[in-house]
Write a sequence for this structure.
């Protein structure tokens, strides 16, 4: 009797145990990704000791990829531990692992195949399959976009593409095993492009189709977000606005770096690459915030506040510098009165300037909040002069509909007879 009772597990306990196991697995995979990131500098150190510094991986061009992989793995671990049934968390973890595995495999192959041949076992196979890690990263990104934010496809009509995108990596891995067919520098001088000459055409075709599907999955995933946004309502629409905002911040730096590298034929500067890495890291953060929906604030409000405080900072910093320089010419550069007077002046104008700037930004960028505030202010003014209950009820429901935009609104008023009865009872 006691044994049966002890073996039985309540649904709550079962869910808690499953979440605990998922959390342990997610953070174990995160730790593995962090270990992979730490392994890459170690291989670079071995390459320098072997006299091959030209083979090192960690340079300015690796900044965006490493930073984005770290953020993706961290956000994926948080999502997978809190929402174990949501596939996007595990896909972000797989994305971080794929990018870090690419660096580890590349460092392993460069040292064991080029710097010190035969020093490491299976270095040739690692070099052969190293392109598969980045290919899987592209596939993961496509599925992340396709399943964000609900964790399911936009509609059943998208299943054929999901199946095709899932089958493409299988064909790609088989082609690498037979071929390898795809040999990337610096291994093109030590690895034959095709191991079986009779399968050259088939291997090349499979790799080309697989890459086309992987690149196409990015476009299809982006289009699925557009389709979701058109159909979404309520919180899902707000979630997608976060993802769209992060994507809008990511595309311009990526375009600038691509233009500087491909069109202008010059190497992108470190500043551009770091900016690209930071912006690429925003997309996993936005996806994580959208899925968790933890304190999902209004995006328009955040943008208007950020713009307002940014403009206020520039204005106050410029005013402070101008006062210090102006008063310094009159009272002397070493006078303590200069700093004190400039500080007091900035403190005095802080609140009025903040109010004015916030109102201006709301009028331009957060029009809905500005219009809502104006509507409430107008209603408050008319409320003082309105005595007709029917007109007041109609205006109140109109104000609620314009400011809060609920799906349904109703107003309950206590009948006058009930109010009279209550008043008489209170008098007795």
């Amino acid at each position: 009797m006691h044994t049966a009772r002890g073996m039985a597990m309540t649904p709550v306990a079962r869910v808690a145990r499953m979440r605990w196991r998922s959390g342990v697995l997610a953070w174990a995979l995160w730790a593995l990704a962090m270990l992979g990131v730490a392994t890459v500098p170690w291989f670079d150190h071995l390459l320098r000791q072997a006299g091959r510094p030209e083979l090192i991986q960690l340079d300015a061009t690796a900044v965006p990829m490493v930073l984005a992989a770290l953020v993706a793995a961290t956000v994926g671990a948080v999502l997978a531990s809190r929402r174990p049934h949501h596939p996007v968390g595990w896909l972000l973890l797989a994305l971080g692992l794929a990018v870090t595995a690419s660096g580890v495999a590349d460092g392993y192959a460069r040292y064991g195949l080029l710097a010190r041949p035969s020093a490491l076992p299976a270095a040739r196979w690692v070099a052969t399959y190293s392109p598969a890690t980045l290919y899987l990263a592209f596939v993961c990104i496509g599925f992340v976009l396709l399943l964000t934010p609900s964790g399911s496809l936009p509609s059943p009509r998208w299943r054929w593409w999901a199946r095709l995108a899932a089958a493409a990596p299988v064909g790609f891995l088989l082609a690498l095993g037979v071929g390898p067919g795809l040999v990337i520098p610096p291994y093109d001088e030590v690895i034959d492009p095709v191991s079986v000459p009779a399968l050259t055409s088939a291997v090349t075709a499979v790799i080309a189709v697989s890459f086309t599907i992987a690149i196409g999955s990015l476009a299809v995933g982006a289009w699925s977000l557009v389709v979701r946004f058109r159909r979404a309502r309520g919180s899902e629409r707000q979630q997608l606005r976060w993802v769209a905002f992060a994507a809008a911040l990511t595309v311009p730096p990526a375009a600038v770096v691509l233009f500087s590298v491909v069109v202008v034929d010059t190497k992108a500067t470190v500043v551009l690459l770091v900016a690209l890495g930071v912006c690429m890291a925003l997309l996993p953060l936005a996806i994580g915030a959208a899925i968790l929906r933890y304190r999902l604030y209004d995006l328009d409000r955040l943008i208007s506040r950020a713009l307002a405080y940014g403009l206020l900072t520039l204005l106050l910093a410029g005013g402070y510098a101008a006062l210090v320089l102006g008063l310094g010419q009159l009272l002397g550069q070493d006078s303590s009165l200069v700093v004190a007077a400039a500080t007091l002046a900035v403190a005095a104008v802080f609140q009025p300037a903040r109010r004015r700037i916030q109102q201006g930004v709301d009028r331009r960028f957060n029009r809905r909040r500005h219009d809502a505030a104006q509507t409430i202010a107008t209603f408050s003014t008319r409320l003082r002069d309105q005595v007709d209950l029917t007109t007041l009820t109609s205006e109140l429901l109109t104000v609620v509909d314009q400011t809060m935009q609920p799906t349904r609104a109703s107003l309950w008023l206590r009948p006058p007879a009930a109010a009279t009865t209550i008043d008489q009872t209170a008098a007795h």
